[in-house]
Amino acid sequence: MAEVWLVNRATGQMGNRLMFFAAVYAWCLHEGHDLFCPGLGGCAEFFTPLAGQLWPSPTRPVPTDLHPAIIDRTRQTRIDRTRLLAKLHLLPGVVRKPSGVVAYALPPTDDSFPPANLRRRRRLWIPAWRCFNPVGIQRYRAQIVAALTPRPDLFKAADDFAATLDPARLHIGVHVRRGDYRNFLGGKHFHPASVYHQQMRALAERFADRQPQFVIFSDEPRNPGEFPGLDVIISGGDMIADLLRMARMHAVVGPMSSFSAMASYLGNGVAYHFGPHASEDNLQWVYLGYPVVHSIDELDAALGDPTTITSTHAGTPGYPIDLRPRKDHH
Fold first, then answer.
1. How many CA atoms lie within 13 A of 55 on its CB side?
2. How far apart are the first and last CA of the chain?
3. Helix (H) or strand (E) holding 174
4. How far apart are CA 214 and CA 172, in angstroms?
5. What is the DSSP string of 218-260?
6. Whether this model's pTM surpasses 0.85
7. 3-state secondary structure of 214
8. Is 158 strand, coil or helix?
9. Cα–Cα distance between 107 and 27 in angstroms, integer?
10. Are 220 and 208 in contact (CB under 8 A)?
11. Phi/psi zone of residue 229: left (φ > 0), alpha (ψ -120 to 50 degrees), beta?
12. Cβ(79)–Cβ(86) under 8 Å?
């Protein structure tokens, strides 16, 4: 048994950080390692099993009374120092991405990784999110979801929001992603409101018998008038509120996004990603194991029978996994 430390930068998108956590935590559960996550940063404080610790850990929690500012500063110092030593190759036990690939699979998806020399270490460091674990996040989903149990006040707020929705109708979240998507990958996933409206109208027609209600989630202010002819509710929450509300949707529609994929995973829903496929930029590994579909037909099938989502079958016969996607893959 070893200690595994996530020392990625404690900044960036919440969906990315939670996916990183899930992949590595599944590995730790599989092999009995302890996990410490300073790289989760302030996100840890949203989840009861991880909150109130200097080094957030779902396996060996140690509460602290330190002031939050001191916690942040101490974590960042550890992250900066560790990443520098790793970059200079002065730190033993660093789990590195193999040369020539964009990512690598962890056990139980790939039981041959990491190499034997690292498996003998008592402490392992992972400085960057370049790993995935589709078999692990499915096998250990209950434990991962439990580790990400929101604080009681956040849980109640999400429940209160869900209670305002008609339980007899289909709830579809719409992730109107703006912000960094204006420039991310040349803006290929940045869409005007009219594109979302078109997708929503197609969904309203396909699922007319279930009278869908649409809940708009966005990092910019939105108004129902942008989506005429549809039953629209604006979430208007902050990042964690939107994640927890989104997790209560039957489905979430939007462009490629780790945020909507993780929310659907936590809530046992389905994320329908329209637009360019992740494989166009060799990012398909990010979504392996998550309940993501790429067409309304696939969404329809998944809502009727979740086992039809091919992503959740990763690792089973007939669904090959590229354990180490090559950098030159297109």
1. 14
2. 38
3. strand 171-176
4. 5
5. ESS---GGGSTTS-EEE----HHHHHHHHTTSSEEEEES-HHH
6. yes
7. strand
8. helix
9. 5
10. no
11. left
12. no
Cα distance between residue 68 and residue 82, in whole Å = 21
Cα separation, 102 vs 273, in Å, equals 22
135 contacts: CB under 8 Å, gap ≥ 6: 108, 109, 289, 314, 315
- 34-36 and 131-132: which strand pairing? unpaired
- Residue 98, pLDDT > 50, answer yes
- Output the pLDDT for position 306: 64
Please state, in angstroms and rounded to a whole number, the distance separating the CA atoms of residues 42 and 224. 32
- Amino acid residing at 32: G
Least confident of 54-58, 219-223, 308-312: 308-312
How many other β-carbons are positioned within 10 Å of the β-carbon of residue 297?
Answer: 10
21-39: b or e for each residue (b if 16 or more CB lie within 10 Å)?
Answer: bbbbbbbbbbeebebbbbb
Q: What angle do CA 137, 42, 187 make, to 5 degrees?
A: 70
Distances in whole angstroms, Cα of residue 181 to Cα of each of 79, 153, 192: 27, 31, 11
Strand pairing class (171-176; 251-255) = parallel
Least confident of 71-75, 130-134, 159-163, 307-311: 307-311
CB 274 within 8 A of CB 199: yes
Three-state DSSP state, 58: coil
Identify the helix (H) or strand (E) that includes residue 213: strand 213-218
- Region of 144 please: left (phi>0), alpha (psi -120 to 50) or beta: alpha
Q: Which two tokens stand for residue 301?
A: 């099938």
Q: Which positions ≥6 away from 214 have C-beta within 8 Å? A: 172, 173, 174, 200, 204, 227, 230, 231, 232, 233
